[in-house]
Design a protein that fits this description.
CATH class: Mainly Beta
Number of strands: 29
CATH architecture: 7 Propeller
Strand content: over 45%
Number of domains: 1
Length: 363
């Protein structure tokens, strides 16, 4: 348990077309066959929040109109963003530039016609906040404090760190949460491990070795599998939580940066900025059932991988129909229909778009 920290300010009461590669579907893979059938792309509704690392801002986009609702100031070098289950709040983790570790969270109210920043939460001695997720009930945010080898439980009404859970891993970067909110898993870049945490008990459970420099991470809704990407080995490892061991490894990636699993637990989606692609993997068979490769055009000078559109951050809608992806190399966000694996829209962001969150709130 850690001491509460004061907040900085008061809070309003919390009350273009892409190249799409063909799919391949192994015998018996009904998910692959269904995805290949003609399906009308999902209509876009809701709100998107994108962090712009170079601009120290967040872009808020109305998806129905593709209109930018607001460009809001955040802390320095904002990285990831989490959105509450009810769609009202977006929380940006201000990681900080290389020379100055950040220790704040920016709170955005998405309800007004023009979304606004309502306050900044000061995390005090906890530095390099990064991956985050709302717990069920939307009153508590789980966020990694990378410099402290810990995950924080932040009370959003009070703006305080109510508890910490040690990860016992160096550079705990991203966090993945089971659907019931009871278990969390962090990727520990410095150790090549993942940590399992008991969220309800505020306790470290165990560390599981995976591969060098693991970063992107996702967990199936039931918590039986954790999918983890290695920046160094360029593979995705699948860890069975029952045994705590790697049971399968998928290769052929340029840089498996971020991972997500659809709410039905059937499809893993992986961004590969080095290859300019988003890849779709069948959870049951481990087979790639589709890929979207973005055109290498309009690449900005700040592209992390020169010559690539750099698909990086991603978020899947709760209904599992759409995945939104930041194109860091083009200062865009893209909407990809998961069933047809086609790009249905792109929208401008700020410079070096990275983290991304989806809200069902409409404007």
């Amino acid at each position: 348990m850690s001491p509460a920290r004061p907040v900085v300010a008061s809070l309003i009461a919390l009350a273009p077309v892409a190249v799409t590669l063909g799919t391949r579907s192994p015998a018996g893979d009904t998910a692959g066959r269904r995805a290949a059938a003609p399906v009308a792309p999902a209509a876009l509704r809701g709100t998107l929040v994108v962090t712009n690392m170079n601009d120290n801002t967040a872009t808020v986009i109305d998806l129905a109109s593709r209109r930018t609702l607001a460009t809001l100031a955040t802390g320095a070098a904002p990285h990831e963003v989490a959105v509450s289950h009810d769609g009202r709040w977006a929380i940006v983790s201000n990681y900080g530039p290389r020379e100055t570790p950040g220790n704040t969270l920016t709170v955005i109210d998405l309800a007004p016609p023009t979304p606004v920043v309502t306050r900044t939460i000061d995390l005090g001695p906890y530095h390099r906040p990064h991956g985050s997720a709302f717990l069920p009930g939307d009153t508590t945010l789980l966020v990694t404090a990378q410099a402290n080898q810990a995950v924080l439980l932040v009370n959003l009404a009070r703006g305080t760190v109510d508890a910490t859970i040690p990860t016992n891993g160096r550079v705990s970067h991203m966090v993945a949460l089971t659907a019931d909110g009871r278990r969390a898993f962090t990727s520990n870049v410095g150790d090549g491990t993942i940590s399992e945490l008991d969220v309800e008990g505020h306790a470290f459970v165990r560390t599981m070795p995976v591969a060098a420099r693991v970063e992107g991470i996702a967990v199936t809704p039931s918590g039986d599998q954790v999918w983890v990407g290695s920046d160094s080995v360029k593979t995705v490892s699948i860890v069975r939580t029952a045994s705590g061991t790697v049971t399968d490894t998928i290769g052929g990636f340029g840089f498996p940066y971020r991972l997500a699993v659809t709410s039905d637990g059937r499809t893993a989606i992986i961004t590969d900025p080095a290859g300019g692609a988003v890849r779709f993997i069948d959870i049951a068979t481990r087979a790639e059932v589709g890929r979207v490769t973005f055109p290498a055009e309009g690449i900005v000078p700040t592209a992390e991988f020169p010559g690539s559109p750099c698909p990086e951050g991603l978020i899947v809608t709760p209904d599992g129909r759409t995945v939104y992806v930041t194109l860091q190399g083009r200062n865009l966000a893209a909407a990809v229909d998961i069933a047809t694996r086609t790009v249905v829209a792109t929208m401008p962001t700020g410079t070096w778009s990275d983290g991304i969150g989806y809200s069902r709130t409409t404007h």
